[in-house]
Automatic annotation (TrEMBL):
<feature type="region of interest" description="Disordered">
    <location>
        <begin position="115"/>
        <end position="136"/>
    </location>
</feature>
<feature type="domain" description="BPTI/Kunitz inhibitor">
    <location>
        <begin position="59"/>
        <end position="109"/>
    </location>
</feature>
<dbReference type="InterPro" id="IPR002223">
    <property type="entry name" value="Kunitz_BPTI"/>
</dbReference>
<feature type="compositionally biased region" description="Low complexity">
    <location>
        <begin position="115"/>
        <end position="127"/>
    </location>
</feature>
<dbReference type="InterPro" id="IPR020901">
    <property type="entry name" value="Prtase_inh_Kunz-CS"/>
</dbReference>
<keyword id="KW-1015">Disulfide bond</keyword>
<dbReference type="Pfam" id="PF00014">
    <property type="entry name" value="Kunitz_BPTI"/>
</dbReference>
<dbReference type="GO" id="GO:0005615">
    <property type="term" value="C:extracellular space"/>
</dbReference>
<keyword id="KW-0722">Serine protease inhibitor</keyword>
<dbReference type="InterPro" id="IPR036880">
    <property type="entry name" value="Kunitz_BPTI_sf"/>
</dbReference>
<keyword id="KW-0646">Protease inhibitor</keyword>
<keyword id="KW-0732">Signal</keyword>
<dbReference type="InterPro" id="IPR050098">
    <property type="entry name" value="TFPI/VKTCI-like"/>
</dbReference>
<dbReference type="GO" id="GO:0004867">
    <property type="term" value="F:serine-type endopeptidase inhibitor activity"/>
</dbReference>
<feature type="signal peptide">
    <location>
        <begin position="1"/>
        <end position="22"/>
    </location>
</feature>
<protein>
    <recommendedName>
        <fullName>BPTI/Kunitz inhibitor domain-containing protein</fullName>
    </recommendedName>
</protein>
Amino acid sequence: MCYKFCLITLSVLSCVLAVLSAAVDQSQLPSKSELVVEKQEDGQQPAVSVDVNAVPEQCHQPKETGRCFALFYRFAYNLDTQSCEEFIYGGCAGNSNNFDTKEQCEQVCQAKAAPTTSPSAAESATEQVTELTTEQ
């Protein structure tokens, strides 16, 4: 009798905890991922950089399977690789970095954070030569 009561109580408590954790406003939590940019040896900035502030906050969250045990293939944005990656979602809880398709993930997380490239020395020289030839 006590054993059945304990199992029912634990089951109800785990459901309540799952609902409560899903109700937590994820935007109020600090971001767990940080972008580290290292300078090159010659002191120049990297050729490609992404404005992390342009990436929506939901895309800063880590991949989170959730507490349930279903097997849904979903996509989440990885700030380190700057790409949308597939993961398995359990069906409940988790966070908002969870998209049905790779296209949805890219539309939300990469559209505003398009990489900006700084021109190389060769490209700059080519642009200067082009400007000189068109001015004549």
